[in-house]
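Hello,

I think I submitted the pyridoxal-5'-phosphate job twice by accident. Can you confirm which output corresponds to this input? Input:
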Amino acid sequence: MFASAMVETGKKRSTIREIFEFGRARAKIVGRENIFDFSLGNPNVPAPLLVTETIKKLVEETPAELLHGYTSAPGGEDVRTSIANNLNERFGTDFRYGNLYMTVGAAASLSITLRALSEPEDEFMVFAPFFPEYRCWIENTAKAKCVVVPPRIEDFQINFKAMEESLTPHTKAVIINSPNNPGGTVYTEETIKKLAEILEAYSVKYGHPIFLISDEPYREIVYDGFITPFVTKYYKNTIVCYSYSKSLSMPGERIGYVLVPSEVTCFEDAYAAICGAGRVLGYVNAPALFQRVVAECTSLTSDISIYERNRDLLYNGLTSMGFKCVKPMGAFYLFPQSPEADEVAFCERAQKHDLLLVPGRDFGCPGHVRIAYCVKTEMIERALPVFEKLAAEYKWAKDKGKYNKIILRVRK
Ligand code: PLP
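Support: Only one job matched these inputs. Its output is below.
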């Protein structure tokens, strides 16, 4: 009677949500302050003050029919011009409003882009570790095949050998996400150049463009002065999916965009397909008020230094306890190796201490766990001794001066 795939998707809550709900229920028993919930990527750093002031100003000053009225489907022309100008200033690009399509956050940007590109038998490639919703959108929205490239564990840059082995004449696009959820990795310029080279070569080999979908909700959240290469400058068939959920700390307001550069093959059709997919998926237009808010706040971000402090505290704390972890250069996630091969068992053990972590297999990378540190610094300070207790349940084996394996000391 109902679409079985939708029933199945609707009944299956994501592991992250399950853990989050467990934390809420548990907080009622032991008190919120005794739960160390690192499960959700919900920014705790407030939106910049100017965002709040702009909302107030717009609500008070915009004529009623404009304030809450429909906008044009791709978004207000002035809004898109403002975003294009900001990108051009920052990245030396040459975008105009006609390159942008406003969306209901990155989730919509991605599902629209996937729907716009997808034809029968198409494959979309993702690199582990990857955001789990990609599979949902590729399989359900685009009705295509999701091809997973295994991770390069040592630094979470791209595993190019495995990528080349996974490319086929059906590959329509590859999705990258840098800064990365859950790895915290930022792709280096070298990685982006190599990726572009391979995509160029295989586009020629297969006689059709292979698109690069760059999912960038964490673009501005980078540390130690690292600069995220702006991907459209390296590969012409790039489509950018952006959102203000993380950079301006407003995931609940649902605002972002798709950027289609004019250099993209058959640009007019590409942009029309984005508009068509937005229409077919029933988006109508992105929230009118928040289109105007972001247009006035293009050069702002939330206070990234708070995330950087959290990263340092957690990374230094955990590695000094013996956890092995690639140092994250961006986003707000730490993705350490689990001390036992079965990271679900490790997460369950952590849960007994009311430490809520997410198993890596959900991100296509078993043996690791995700720790979202977009939380209060004070909670991390209180959680470190708890991590210490958890670590003490394992005996760390040393090999050539480096730990390599951790053996369970107690199991009761
Ligand atoms: N892509 C990645 C990598 C994410 O981490 C998220 C949200 O956490 C999204 C997309 C969806 O973002 P939005 O809330 O803007 O839809």
